[in-house]
Amino acid sequence: MKEFVFKKKYGQNFLTDKNLLASICSDAGIESSDEVLEIGAGMGALTKPLCERAKKVVSYEIDTELEQYLQSLNCDNLILHFEDALKKDLAEIEKDFSGEYKLVANLPYYITSPLIFKFLSSKKISSLTVMVQKEVGERITAKVGDKEYGLLSVSCAFFGAAKIMRKVPRSMFKPQPEVDSCIVKIEVEKNKFSVSEEAFFKVVKAAFKSRRKTLLNNLSEGLNASKSAFDGFIQDLSKRAEMLSVQDFVSLTKQLQERGLV
Ligand code: SAM
User: Fold this and answer.
1) What does the pLDDT look like over 147-206, one tens digit per residue?
2) Which of 3, 47, 124, 242 has the most CB atoms within 10 Å of its CB?
3) What's the pTM?
4) CA dihedral of residues 99, 164, 89, 60 (deg, nearest 10)
5) How many angstroms is it from 11 CA to the middle of ligand 1?
6) For ligand 1, is residue 181 a contact (CB within 6 Å)?
7) Class of residue 218 by CB neighbours under 10 A (exposed 0-12, middle 13-18, buried 19+)
8) Whole-number Å distance between alpha carbons of 209 and 218
């Protein structure tokens, strides 16, 4: 095989440490009956231990130059797709699974948030165990009152419970990135809140639009309503979005729906 040249544009920072790779599998709680989706297989460092533990592994890799390495893994329970997982329709991706599945990935940093959002809204996913930049992990798991708390924290809390499973120093990757990482696990809780997902995200996105503005200003701008339309709300709309918990956003969404504002 000719020597592989890492492509920065695809976020190619590979893992080799067998103990770390085994720990990622145990963080994900992979069992022999599990179906697993891996995004960004690389040379297969994580793919292989996943195949050894799971019933079935479906791996996506955008870089066709890596095909020779992945095909040589010779795993009978592995389905490989050389495609862009972000562009591929979610329903198409899920055709490979007979029921629920777990996402496990050392994610390429340049598409971390859109990938997480894409899979969080799935009705078939049960958990996401992903390597992300340390700061992103802190934002995902932040609680109201933490300085990292924001749109990403609220969005993840809407779908489930997020936890940092382990810190991973930059020295564990080849080539070494300029940032440290961590493994975050999001256990998906289906129908956690009885509110329309579409309405909730319209409200949350409008609320966080401009961090320096109050909820009242952001909501009236984002939802195209006059400020007087928000008179008599239970929530104190002179607050800023980062002062509201996910539960507060759920009640706010319900009130806005009752008034026909969202
Ligand atoms: N899993 C391997 C490991 O841990 O050593 C590689 C992880 S590396 C951080 C991310 C991988 O994702 C790279 O191999 C890259 O080519 C691939 N990738 C980047 N963008 C992708 C996309 N949109 N769809 C699928 N794979 C992608």
Assistant:
1) 999 999 999 999 999 999 999 999 999 999 999 999 999 999 988 999 999 999 999 999
2) 47
3) 0.95
4) -90
5) 7
6) no
7) buried
8) 6
